[in-house]
Amino acid sequence: MLDAAITAAQELGPHDVAIVLGSGWTDAISSFEQAGDDVPVATLAGFAQPTVAGHGAVVRSLRAGDVRVLAFTGRSHYYESRDVGLVAHAVRTAAAAGCRTVVLTSASGGMRDDLAAGDLVIVSDHINLTGASPLVGATFLDLTDLYSARLRALCREVDPSLAEGVYAGYWGPNYETPAEIRAYRAMGADIVGMSTVLEAIAAHAEGMEVLAISLVTNRAAGLGGRLDHADVLSTAAASVDRMRALLEALLPRL
Q1: Of 2, 61, 154, 242, which residue is the least packed, with the fewest Cβ within 10 Å?
Q2: Burial zone of 30 (CB within 10 Å; 0-12 exposed, 13-18 middle, 19+ buried)
Q3: Closest CA to 219 of 117, 66, 75
Q4: Other CB atoms within 10 A of residue 157 CB
């Protein structure tokens, strides 16, 4: 997959910052100046067509001030293929394109009592529940500082009201059971979703600074009503102005 990442990066050209957009986040980049045409992700070496509603299928080059941003409007989730290399391919391509920073966005279920639908959470740490890793062999990687303290502080400068929390990366595609949510809360998790953790590990291994921001779209299983992906997209659409404002203030400073 490394050769494919280099090939895809050559086609996309050099960039400074990458952003991977989660469910319903595509409209959050609509105000940025676009440089060139959209590139269908399935035409790039090593990529697959996204299959999840709410995810785009193109890679877009943007300008955020002087910062060249490589925006992946959708992602490959672990539950779509159980192919860890495919999940990590976008961030490895971004690294090959010269990106020094990656912003991983997502939708999540809130487990902490003070988190409600529509809240944005800066990820301070994660619990990887997938049982997988994008690293192979005797590649020992310290994850103590995986989620950049500098970038988290920058987010709080932009919006002091932002919460921080621990993200539990679930395997999907089924939602969690109420008993699992109780267990994850006991483990110290605050939000739960089906992405981010494998990409973050791969990006950190490539030497990139990692920032992860998750939109709470619902209360997790057993803490609210029934779970439905349509509700995830509805909450994302209702929150897009806040997401866009955050990215408009943040990306030019990365």
Answers
A1: 2
A2: exposed
A3: 117
A4: 11
Residues 6+ apart with CB under 8 A from 10: none
Q: Cβ atoms within 10 A of the Cβ of 211, count? A: 25
- Reading the block at residue 208, the tokens are 């990139």
Residue in 104, 111, 89, 86 with CA at minimum distance from that of residue 175: 111
Selection from 7, 1, 13, 20 nearest residue 208 by Cα: 20
Which residues, 6+ apart, have CB-to-CB distance to 171 below 8 Å?
A: 78, 79, 129, 130, 131, 194
Q: Could you say which DSSP state residue 254 is in? A: -
Report the alpha-carbon distance of residue 96 to residue 44 in Å, rounded. 14
Structure tokens belonging to residue 2: 């490394």
What is the β-pairing status of strands 17-20 and 67-72?
parallel
CB atoms within 10 A of CB 236: 24
Per-residue pLDDT of 42-89, as tens digits, reads 999 999 988 888 788 999 999 999 999 999 999 999 999 999 999 999
Q: Which amino acid is at 3?
A: D
- In this predicted structure, what is the pLDDT of residue 24? 84
φ, ψ dihedrals at 123, nearest 5°? -80, 120
